């Protein structure tokens, strides 16, 4: 009987150790996911800031503010959330005053690429126009 109880207690101890190890593993995986999400958010914030800077350089600060006011994008631009700032960028790039639903976190990378493409087209068009003006 004593041997059976010892065996049972040892088994319970190893099960407890396994449970603790599993919990530690899960919590470390959870922390890694949180760090990955936080890293993605920081990357998006830097990218959005860079796109706003490019827009300000393209239009000029005064014209950009006028355009944002006309499109009712000022609250979106000044927001702290990445979804609202991305929606503000989209309004400015597409010159679209309609209110759209805020993008989900899954949509943000794709939207940022589309915004970047539109902005690249605007800058390229202006560069070609400037070259043609100089040639004439």
UniProtKB/TrEMBL annotation:
Q: Which UniProt keywords apply?
A: Hydrolase, Protease
GO:BP terms for this protein?
proteolysis
Comp. bias regions, Basic and acidic residues: 30-40
Region feature Disordered, mapped onto this chain: 16-40
Q: Name one GO molecular function term.
A: peptidase activity
Organism phylogeny:
Bacteria, Bacillati, Bacillota, Clostridia, Eubacteriales
Protein name (record): ATP-dependent protease, Lon family
Would the keyword Protease turn up in this protein's UniProt record? yes
